[in-house]
Amino acid sequence: MFNIVIMAGGQGQRFWPKSIKSMPKQFHKIVSDKTMIQETFNRVYPEIKLDNIFVVAGEKLMAVAAEQLPLLKKQNLITEPVGKNTAPAIGLAAAYIYKKDPDAVIAVLTADHVVESREQFLKALNTAVRVAEEGHIVTFGITPDRPATEYGYIEIGEKIGQSYELDVFSVKMFREKPTIEVAREFVRRDVFLWNSGLFAFKVRVILDAMKEHMAPLYSALMKIYDSIGTEDEKTVKMTEFEKIESESIDYGVMEKAADIACVKPDFLWDDVGSWGAVSRHVSGDKEGNIVQGNVVSVDSKNNIVLGEENSIISVIGIQDLIVVKDKDKVLVCHRSRDQHIKEALSSMAGKKKYMQYL
After folding, report:
1. What is d(CA 290, CA 283) in angstroms, rounded to the nearest whole number?
2. Contact status, residue 77 vs residue 65, Cβ threshold 8 Å
3. H helices within 293-340, ranges in order?
4. CA 18/CA 22 separation, integer angstroms
5. Do 267 and 315 have their domain in common?
6. Domain extent for 203
7. Domain boundary at 254, 273, 292, which?
8. Same domain assignment for residues 215 and 311
9. Are 78 and 96 in contact (CB under 8 A)?
10. Are the C-beta atoms of 288 and 304 separated by less than 8 Å?
11. DSSP 161
């Protein structure tokens, strides 16, 4: 049986004001009646046993994760002392699982993605694990349905293997988030897929790759590995994590390792990176408005208005806006500018009067 690692440490800044440091996007109900981390968990359980499902997140978020996923055991909650991006998070989970089973395979999922078709997802997951068992580092490449500039891309090469349920390709190159012109060219060609940020590999293989390409991280992970189960575990983990560079798994390993395989799944995927993306998954009313909570709309079209049950929002004569209220925080933003919410948060950062709102 392979293992699932759910990364739940992201901040989801573009979903402010609902997403804040103490309660980020993955713990909110964004596109359904379940939170995003609950949707991710339900995507693999009960097909994957509870003993083989792990969550990795910072200490301040782990209590929220435990509350929202009450079936998970305490020993399956892997705490990061300090958030240092995806490479250290994945490496830490790999070290703990390696201690448990040196031959383990892990599939890494992100807690805040939307996946439609659970059946197809499990099919892709099983294919990826089969490829990983053969020693490959595996990523999932999603067929683009639009020229998106918010995603990185994978340029695939030759098809590998003949006995897999889904097509599997070698990876020629990882491409950065493109301009709109380049994204249009990528979509016109069938060798460019979206980089989903979902992976599968043997723990031994990913740790060896970190040893080769991220030697300081590997050294820190081995010290943590040696301390697991001892009275010094917490201290060693904190000491080593404070020294680790913040680095993504894409930059640290995926773009450098030689033996990368890409599974091409057949499900709809979206990382729902901003409020505007909600419209791809939630239907609007006859005027194109997506509303939640107590909202009164007059002569308004194509808006996203999210309120609360204990207050009311009235919108009159507006179009193409995002209006979100969360307690004492309100966002008003043009739908074309939802990628710029981080700029507002940057303006608030470091100012004492705004800290309670972040």
Report:
1. 7
2. yes
3. none
4. 10
5. no
6. 3-273
7. 273
8. no
9. yes
10. no
11. -
With beta carbons less than 8 A apart as the criterion, state whether 321 and 287 touch.
no
Number of domains composing the chain: 2
What is residue 253's DSSP assignment? I
Identify the domain boundary among 273, 305, 324.
273
Please count the CA atoms within 13 angstroms of the CA of 40 that sit on its side-chain side.
Answer: 32
Which one-letter amino acid corresponds to residue 50?
A: L
What's the confidence (pLDDT) of residue 11? 87
User: Is the Cβ–Cβ distance between 191 and 141 less than 8 Å?
Assistant: no
Query: What would the pLDDT profile of 190-218 be if each residue is shown by its tens digit?
Result: 899 999 999 999 999 999 999 999 999 99
Strand 53-58 with 313-316, pairing: unpaired
The single-letter code of the amino acid at 47 is: E
**Residue 82 shares a structural domain with residue 100:** yes
Q: Fill in the amino acid letter for 41.
A: F
**Model pTM score:** 0.95
| Residue 63 and residue 101 in one domain | yes
Q: How far apart are CA 337 and CA 325, in angstroms?
A: 17
Q: Where are the beta strands (DSSP E) in the chain?
A: 3-7, 53-58, 77-80, 105-110, 114-116, 137-142, 153-159, 168-175, 192-202, 260-263, 268-270, 290-292, 295-298, 304-306, 313-316, 321-326, 329-334
Contacts of 64 (CB under 8 A, 6+ apart): 23, 27
Residue holding tokens 């990528």? 186
* Integer Cα distance of 253 and 218 in angstroms: 12
Take residue 87 and report the two structure tokens written for it: 């490479």
Give me Rg for the CA atoms of the chain: 21
| 190 token code pair | 């069938």
pLDDT band at 128 (very low <50, low <70, confident <90, very high): very high
